[in-house]
Amino acid sequence: MSEPIKNRYEFVLLYDVENGNPNGDPDAGNMPRIDPETGYGIVTDVCLKRKIRNYVEMVKGDAPGYRIYVKEGVPLNQNHAQAYVSIGLKPGDKKASISQISDARRWMCANFFDVRTFGAVMMMGDNCGQVRGPVQINFSRSIDPIVQQEVTITRQAVTRIEDAEKERTMGRKHIVPYGLYRAEGYVSAKLANNASNGTGFSEEDLALLWEALTNLFEHDRSAARGKMAVRKLVIFKHESELGNAPAHKLFETVTVERVNRLNPPRSYTDYVVKVDVERVPAGVTVIEKI
User: Fold this and answer.
1) How confident is the model at residue 155 (pLDDT cuts 50, 70, 90)?
2) DSSP reduced 3-state for 172
3) Which residues of 199-229 are buried (b: 16+ CB within 10 A; e: fewer)?
4) What contacts 51, CB < 8 A, 6 or more positions away?
5) DSSP reduced 3-state for 138
6) pTM for the full model?
7) Where are the domains of the chain?
8) pLDDT reading at 286 higher than 80
9) Neighbour tally for 166: CB within 10 Å
10) Is residue 122 predicted with pLDDT exceeding 60?
11) Is residue 194 within 8 Å of residue 143, measured between CB atoms?
């Protein structure tokens, strides 16, 4: 592992969807998530973190230090038990000391990328403590209000032999014809390298995070999500651990404007994205990945 990061970062991520559902709402029949008061589309932070985890797993596999903690089909407690065995404790030991729990916590951070990146509550089963991750991502919001469109589809195949002569079944797909979404995120050097409870999130981890964000949808294709693409990643690098400017002031320097307001937006070319570097305070460097 490389050294923990020494700089604070913020970032703005712009991505779009065409004829797809970027994040279905299970409480609304899997319709695209929406702010009911404004009509703006929403994508949760959990949705984006899942795609980052999937990318890291695809690139690193189960390489030492890059396992994924929140993973389909793997009980979380199973990972906790491995941590206990590795530090010399018996799984199921309810008398683990604070020091031993801290050792288990450090083992989890060292072995699982998503634990040392996003944090985790690992107090169920074999107690491995709680980690506050240095990387946090806000909910995404669309630049303009979206349209939740319901498309009827037919199923030509049948499941059972006895249904072969029956009429074909009907179904529904929920899509957004087009939507450009904006997410904002934070990377805290203090939470990465704090002497007592830092996660060890490193420069190597940071490079992998930027790589995952720029390739967020390249290996996450499905008919339900339509065509999704990352359009821009703007990174603000502070000279210090604590930072040299408020995050919201930096976010305000990234603006997105509609080119033509006569017609609904249907492509990325309907927008102009600007980064006003003149407004960026001293001590902060702007890095554009895309």
Assistant:
1) confident
2) strand
3) bbbbeebbebbbebbebbbeeeeeeebbebe
4) 212, 216, 217, 220
5) coil
6) 0.93
7) 9-59+131-288
8) yes
9) 9
10) yes
11) no
